[in-house]
Amino acid sequence: MSNPDRRIAFLQEMGLGPVWSQRAAVLQALEPEAATVSEVAAPLEDSVAAATPLRVVEPGASAWGDDDVATSPVALPVAVPATPTALVQPASSIGSMNWDQLKTVVSNCTECGLCKGRTQTVFGVGDQKAKWLFVGEGPGRNEDFQGEPFVGPAGKLLDNMFVAMGLKRGENTYIANIVKCRPTDENKRDRAPVATESDACMPYLQRQIELLNPTVIVALGKTAALSLLKLDPATPVARLRGSVHRYADIPVVVTYHPAYLLRTPKDKSKAWADLCLAMQTYADKG
After folding, report:
1. Residue whose C-alpha is closest to residue 250's, from 216, 209, 224, 273
2. Cα–Cα distance measured from residue 175 to residue 241, given in angstroms and rounded to the nearest whole number
3. β-sheet bridge partners, residue 220
C-alpha cells in the first residue's frame, strides 16, 4: 500500500473518509509519488491580507481524526516572513559536541534547579537527519518517567497530527523541548518553565538545531515560541500564528501545544491551518 493510500486508510478508520486534500505542490514535496489533488480552503481565524487556498475540513471533523471539531472553510494566508531572530551562541564546548556527547552532558546537567526533582532528563527523540523539528515546552509526568517527549494523550494527538501531515514519529521528524527536565510546582504538578530555566537549557536545544539543520521548526505552544523567537513573555500565541518567523535563518511556524488542544478542542481546526502553513513553507523551501 502506498503512503497516500495508508493516509486515506487511517482517515477512514477514524470515521472521516476523505476529510482533507493537500495541494499537489505540497504533496509532491513531501511524497513525490502522491497523486494530484484539488485546491481547497483551510480554516484560520487570524487571517492576513494575502491568502492561498489549501484544503477543506468537513464540518464536524478534526483534520487528524481524534474528535469532532465544527469548522467552516476560510482562506489560509500565504507565509509572511518575519524579521530574523539572532542566533544565541552556545558555550564553546557545547557548540562542538556530537549527538552522543550532547546527550551525555544533558543527562548530567545541574545548570538549574529542575535537576533536583527529575526522574531523568528528556533529551529528544527522532531521526537525527530529520528536516522537521517539533519543539514543545518541557517534560510532563509521563515524559519524566519514560524519558521521551510527548507520550501519553498529548503524544498520541501529536502522532495523529503527524499522520495527517504524511509524517511519522522517528521518520524525518525530531521532537525536542525547551527544557530537558520536568518543571513542577510546590504540589508536584506540571507547570511551564520560568525564564531562568529556559535560558539555562537553551544551549542544548540550540546545539540540537545546529546538528539537525531542519528545514522547518514547528513551535508547539507559547513557551516554545517565545523562547525560540526571544519575544516578550506577554506575547499571545494568537498573535504569532499565521506568519512564518525565523530562528536564525530557519522558518518557524507557531501553533498550539497538543496538551492545550486536548483541553480546548475548538482550536484544533486553527492548529491544522498552522500545520498546513508549515507544509507549504516546507514545500517552498524544497
Report:
1. 216
2. 20
3. 255
Whether residue 216 contacts residue 282, with contact meaning beta carbons closer than 8 Å, is answered with: yes
Q: How far is CA 102 from the centre of its chain?
A: 22
* Contact between residue 102 and residue 207 where contact means Cβ atoms under 8 Å apart: yes
Q: What is the pTM of this model?
A: 0.75
In the 8-state DSSP scheme, what is residue 149?
Answer: S
Asked if residue 164 lies in contact with residue 65, where contact means CB atoms within 8 angstroms, the answer is yes
Residue among 14, 7, 26 at smallest CA distance from 62: 14
Kind plus residue range of the DSSP H or E element containing 202: helix 195-212
Give, rounded to a whole angstrom, the gap between the first and last alpha carbons of the chain: 25
Kindly report the number of other CB atoms within 10 A of residue 284's CB atom.
Answer: 16
Q: Return the closest-CA partner of residue 115 out of 177, 222, 200.
A: 200
**pLDDT tens string 73-117:** 333 444 444 433 434 444 559 999 999 999 999 999 999 999 999
Counting other chains too, the contacts that 94-97 makes at CB distance below 8 Å and 24 or more residues apart are: 94/203, 94/204, 94/206, 94/207, 95/203, 95/207, 95/210, 97/207
